[in-house]
Amino acid sequence: METQQGSTNESKQKHGKMKVLLVSLSCILMAVGQIAGPLLCRMYFLHGGKRKWLTSWLLTAGFPVMILPISIFYMSSKAKTDQHLFITRWLFWACAILGILLGFNSYLYSFGISYLPVSVSSLLSSTQLAFTAVFAFVVVKHKFTHFSINAVILMTFGSILLGFHMNGDRPKGEPNGEYVLGFFMTIGGAAVHGFLMAALEYTQKNSAISFTFDIFMQFQLLVSIFATLFCSVAMIINKDFQAIPEEAREFGLGEIKYYTILVLAAIANQFSIIGSIGVIFSSNSLLAGLVTSLLVPVLQLFSVVFLREGFSGEKGMALAMSVWAFASYLYGEHQASQNKKLALGGEEVNNDSV
Predict the structure, then answer these.
(1) TM spans, by residue (predicted)?
(2) Contact indicator for 259, 54 with CB cutoff of 8 Å
């Protein structure tokens, strides 16, 4: 009996270490993607790029990078199990719906970043933490606490503060109407992103299969394919594919750098998607929202250094509210986790006494 219990504990420890490794790797991919992606996309627009559906397409078009690791996992597990692919009819349609939503969210995000400085768009995008909290409560029944409510309020006030300072942040020569539209499109993108976080977690919990790492990669690949198809249809209608060669020739940094920016943006954005889904499937949607919010100050720093964007007092206040909201939410989740452990410990004590 002791040998069996020791084997069980060892298995749990091994599983725990693998989970920590997966979460850590996913967070690193999120950091690379969510910092490099916006900077590259904004650089595209600053130097003459005008195709919003193209940058939307770039957010998911890097999905072929997943084919190699999926193939390796498939071949290595071929001799061990008969179940190689996760596809069921329910999951297929779930991937299709989520992919279309991701494509639409990509357009909202691209529209916003085409008119807003990265320092502003990143702060507005951080409100997805508030939307994630709301949708996680509605969709997957995560409970609200006064810490999460505090985080939602702070994020909301931070966005309002930026809204009052629109004129000071608007790039020279940009019409006020386009800047305002970009502002609200970014908020809309944050809302859709928050819903996607909760919907991904809901899909995992109701899939009727166990989501291993290789299955998670297959899921991510299929969602990205549907999102890319959605954006590709829009690009065909808008004749964006035909416009790429001419836009490359007229690009401010030169034709070679034009294509380099597009390729690197596609890869970076795919890293962001892989990381986000990895955090959700190895932990939960709320942690993914927290990591995104935590990366906002880092992206702020990079935008000031590499894109020479200004950093006003209002942006500083909004950033402070975002960090405060993140700390509040994180502390609330820690408290909830500790209370849950204490409750479980109490149950074990009661069971032992019986």
Answers:
(1) 20-45, 57-75, 87-109, 115-140, 147-167, 179-200, 221-238, 258-281, 286-307
(2) no
DSSP state of 150: H
**Alpha carbon distance 134, 113 (integer Å):** 25
Please tell me the distance from the alpha carbon of residue 148 to that of residue 332, in angstroms, as a whole number: 7
Cα distances (angstroms) measured from residue 238 to each of 53, 225, 231, 252, 317: 8, 20, 10, 23, 40
* Short-list 166, 182, 51, 211, CA closest to 108: 182
Query: Whose structure tokens read 């935008």?
Result: 303
- From residue 262, alpha-carbon distances to 220, 254, 257 in Å are 21, 13, 9
Question: Which H/E stretch holds residue 182?
Answer: helix 176-205
Q: How far apart are CA 195 and CA 108, in angstroms?
A: 14
Contact assessment for residue 111 and residue 41, using Cβ atoms and an 8 Å cutoff: no
pLDDT in tens, the chain (354 residues): 555 555 556 666 666 677 778 888 888 898 899 899 989 999 999 899 999 999 999 988 888 888 877 777 777 665 555 555 666 788 888 999 999 999 999 999 899 888 888 877 877 777 777 787 788 778 777 666 777 777 777 766 766 666 555 555 566 666 778 878 888 898 899 899 889 888 887 887 887 777 676 777 788 888 989 999 999 999 999 999 999 999 999 999 999 999 999 999 999 988 888 888 778 777 766 677 777 777 777 787 788 788 877 666 766 777 777 778 777 777 776 777 777 777 766 554 444 433
Query: Do 235 and 53 form a contact (C-beta atoms < 8 A)?
Result: yes
H or E element that contains 128:
helix 128-139
Torsion 40-43-48-49 (CA) sign: positive
Is 216 in contact with 280 (CB distance < 8 Å)?
no
303 within 8 A of 119, measured Cβ to Cβ: yes
Element (H, E) at 258: helix 255-282
